[in-house]
Design brief:
The structure holds two protein chains of two kinds. Chain A is of the alpha/beta class. Chain A is built from ten helices and 13 strands. Chain A has helices at residues 64-71, 114-123, 129-142, 158-170, 188-203, 215-221, 239-246, 260-268, 291-305, 319-328, and strands at 27-36, 39-49, 52-58, 79-84, 99-102, 176-179, 207-212, 224-229, 232-238, 251-257, 273-280, 283-288, 309-313. In chain A, the strands form three sheets. A six-stranded mixed sheet of chain A has the order 5-6-7-3-8-9, with helices on both faces. In chain B, helix 1 packs across helix 7, helix 4 (183-216) runs antiparallel to helix 7 and helix 10 (348-362) packs antiparallel against helix 13 (402-429). The two termini of chain B are 39 Å apart. Chain B contains 13 helices and four strands. In chain B, strand 3 (159-163) and strand 4 (169-173) form a beta hairpin. The chains are: A alpha/beta, B mainly alpha. Chains A and B meet through helix 1, strand 5 and helix 2 of A and helix 1 and helix 6 of B.
Chain lengths: 332, 434
């Protein structure tokens, strides 16, 4: 048996996936805790996720990354059991043949071209050189980088880098895709592209886990969320149920613009806006009960009115105040 | 079943080539790789310049036995007078009185006249005997019979090489046998052999073998973890032990050809300047191959070790410093005291034993040559190069043929690498990479 240096012809047939046992959930956390010294990163997590897109929401330090580290076999649970397609990922890397992982780290091999990067990691699935090239082309096209296959990653924008990472996770058509904070630091265009890709994966029947600390991003992708707080599952299930409880309290949108007065008048006409304040020079504060509706109406309003906007903030709309409401039941 | 095995092989092989290729390309894009390679090349080149200088120096012939001198001042050198039966110490007795008179030889003719001939060496009763008395200093008719076998081995006019129980060898010469060799022929050969052994053992095997992996292998895993790019590889269906192995493979695809090129270049440069027949001395090729083999194995074992130290601990490379010091000591021990059992728990000891064994394969007369050129009682002119050659020459560890010694050393070094890999894989498997 000689080493297959020619790399011609099929190795393991990449088209034939590892037999999927539909009874085994993709991801199972069974009473999982993870402690680092005296710090409890995760306490008694019980989760079983299979199919569809699930948002893992939580503030920084809530345990999202630890959850993914356990799932990707990079850490060992202090107690409990983690199962990836029924297999302990700490002991056996074989389930990763069916998993694509997009790490949070922005580090990439900048010296490689996007095509080479993706093809290199495709070959770790047992694909030959040629097959890996074809696969790289396919997934880079899927994330909209077909023009940049032969460009060096070092010259990419943040959004493009994020999409390269996603592409690399999609080789070999995984059943489970795990994305750790994929939208962080991306420009709006990249955000939209990435969200579309994630939604598309969900439609294709893949199991997708997306972590984020921004509720609105997750809302635009999926309805199914897991809300982590201090290493525990605070809320689980449909986002609307959680949302309904939150919308009873008013939200603020803070816009920094050159002509605050004109913008204030214009925004008052919007539906769902129940108050507009001018807290300072060049600032407009909008009060609303339906943040989503106002946010979707704002862009066209700003563009049509020709406003020069410097910044848009949602002072209340961070997860922190929402979690505050959920935990305390009252104001943040 | 065979089909399944083939598939598994192919898949494994694809992963291996993917990671190795990736590693090699990563090295290629890093400036530091070429700085390390460049520094090593410059260092070796500088040492080679010393060799070229030594080879270009003119060797002055020395009259070791006084045959070229004329103590009685009659114009005839001693050698000529002795060979023609006149008294070299009596001015009135000289070959000029013969009928017809014999003209005096120029003294230079009697400077180098009795060198060793290693090819006529025979083993008698466990000790080697050799020596041909070309000029009659021992075998002449006027030499008393009892002086013709002063070493008492029953052979007249020879040199005997004996080995003591401790393994040291010493020479005993019958009177004036082979006492005046040609310095021009012997000294460059001594220098050449001493240089090849010193350069091969310390310059190539030790310096290249330990410094290149120190800079190039220790970061194979460590920097990938530190920079966060290891995530991509570990999220693929590949065991961590495999990652170690294939990264090492990528490292070897860089350092093995580079070291081969350096060794080949050294072989050509020294081959061109070396003493001997022809414009290129090819007879040392076997030794260069042994040096290359030892270097490759050193690069493998040290590379595996430094990579593992990098896995073990973020600053694990600090541990490489006492280790390198230990190996440095062992390198010298292997020359000073090659029978020391301590050498068996080192890497360099095994590497250098490959060269020691190969020395005997390439230079059949080497033990005699070393004994002859380093023993002042037989020939006084070898001096420092002879002593250096004696120091740099060691016995292979086992009382077996050189080939067996090489085979055992290679096997042990491969086992060392395998063992370190197992430890590294276990450490890496147990490491949480958050």
């Amino acid at each position: 048996m000689m080493p297959d240096l020619s790399q011609v012809g099929p190795a393991v047939d990449p088209a034939a996936p590892v037999p999927v046992d539909s009874k085994v959930p993709a991801v199972v956390f069974d009473h999982v805790s993870k402690t680092y010294g005296r710090i409890h990163a995760l306490s008694n997590i019980n989760l079983a996720i299979s199919g569809g897109v699930t948002g893992i929401l939580g503030l920084n330090g809530a345990g999202k990354s630890t959850l993914f580290n356990l799932l990707m076999g990079r850490c060992r649970p202090s107690s409990g059991e983690v199962r990836l397609f029924g297999i302990d990922p700490w002991k056996d890397p074989s389930p990763y043949a069916r998993v694509g992982f997009v790490p949070e780290s922005e580090k990439l091999h900048d010296w490689m071209t996007a095509g080479d990067f993706v093809a290199t990691f495709a070959r770790l699935h047992g694909l030959g050189r040629e097959q890996a090239q074809a696969e790289a082309e396919r997934v880079l096209t899927f994330v909209g980088l077909q023009e940049n296959i032969h460009s060096e990653i070092g010259r990419f924008s943040k959004g493009m880098r994020q999409r390269v990472k996603i592409a690399h996770a999609l080789v070999n058509d995984p059943d489970l895709i795990v994305l750790d904070e994929p939208l962080t630091g991306c420009d709006p265009l990249a955000r939209t592209t990435i969200m579309n890709v994630v939604r598309e994966l969900g439609r294709m029947g893949r199991t997708v886990l997306v972590s984020s600390h921004i509720l609105h991003e997750i809302e635009r992708i999926t309805e199914q969320i897991v809300l982590l707080h201090h290493g525990q599952v605070l809320a689980l299930g449909n986002v609307h149920g959680i949302r309904a409880r939150l919308d009873r309290i008013p939200h603020r949108i803070l816009i920094h613009t050159d002509d605050a007065n004109r913008l204030a008048k214009t925004t008052l006409d919007l539906e769902h806006v129940h108050g507009v304040l001018l807290p300072g020079e060049g600032k407009v504060e909008i009060l609303t009960h339906d943040l989503g509706a106002v946010h979707s109406a704002l862009p066209s309003l700003l563009v049509n009115g020709g406003f020069n906007v410097h910044r848009i903030d949602n002072p209340d709309d961070d997860l922190e105040s929402i979690i505050g409401h959920l935990v305390g039941g009252g104001g943040a | 079943m065979a089909d399944e095995a083939t598939k598994a092989w192919a898949a494994l092989d694809r992963k291996a080539t993917a990671v190795a290729e990736f590693t090699l390309r990563q090295y290629r894009t890093r400036l530091s790789t070429w700085v390390v390679v460049g520094c090593v090349a410059v260092a070796l080149g500088t040492i080679l310049l010393f060799y070229l200088q030594a080879m270009s120096e003119e060797v002055v012939a020395v009259d070791n036995d006084g045959d070229a001198s004329d103590p009685d001042g009659d114009g005839y050198p001693t050698g000529q007078e002795v060979s023609l039966g006149t008294d070299p110490y009596f001015a009135l007795d000289h070959p000029g009185n013969f009928d017809p008179p014999v003209a005096p030889d120029p003294p230079e003719r009697w400077i180098d006249e009795d060198g060793p001939s290693f090819s006529n060496a025979v083993v008698l009763d466990g000790s080697t005997t050799f020596g041909v008395d070309d000029d009659g200093d021992c075998s002449g008719a006027d030499v008393p019979e009892r002086s013709k076998d002063s070493n008492g081995n029953g052979e007249a006019c020879d040199i005997v090489l004996r080995t003591t129980y401790s393994g040291a060898s010493y020479m005993l010469s019958d009177g004036a046998v082979d006492e005046d060799p040609s310095e021009a022929a012997l000294l460059p050969e001594v220098t050449h052999r001493a240089f090849l052994l010193g350069y091969g053992k310390l310059g190539v095997v030790f310096i290249v073998g330990i410094f290149v992996p120190l800079f190039l292998a220790s970061g194979l895993i460590r920097t990938e973890i530190a920079s966060g790019t290891m995530h991509y590889m570990l999220a693929k269906p590949i065991a961590r032990g495999e990652v170690l192995l294939y990264r090492m493979l990528g490292y070897l695809t860089l350092v093995w050809p580079v070291s081969a090129a350096l060794v080949l270049l050294s072989a050509v440069v020294t081959g061109l300047a070396a003493p001997g027949d022809g414009w290129l001395r090819v007879s040392d090729l076997g030794l260069w191959l042994a040096i290359l083999l030892a270097t490759w194995l050193a690069l493998l074992v040290y590379g595996m070790l430094f990579m593992t130290l990098g896995v073990m601990w973020r600053f694990g490379i600090v541990l490489a410093i006492p280790f390198a010091a230990w190996e440095f000591g062992m390198a010298f021990l292997s020359m000073g005291l090659p029978s020391s059992p301590l050498l068996r728990v080192s890497v360099i000891g095994w590497c250098l034993s490959i060269i020691d064994a190969a020395t005997r394969l390439v230079w059949k007369d080497h033990d005699l040559f070393v004994a002859y050129t380093s023993d002042g009682t037989v020939w006084g002119s070898a001096g420092p190069p002879g002593e250096a050659l004696a120091f740099l020459t060691s016995n292979a560890p086992f009382d077996l043929s050189p080939t067996w010694n090489i085979a055992i050393a290679v096997l042990v070094l491969l086992l060392q690498a395998g063992l370190i890999w197992l430890v590294g894989a276990a450490l890496f498997n147990g490491k949480e990479i958050a």
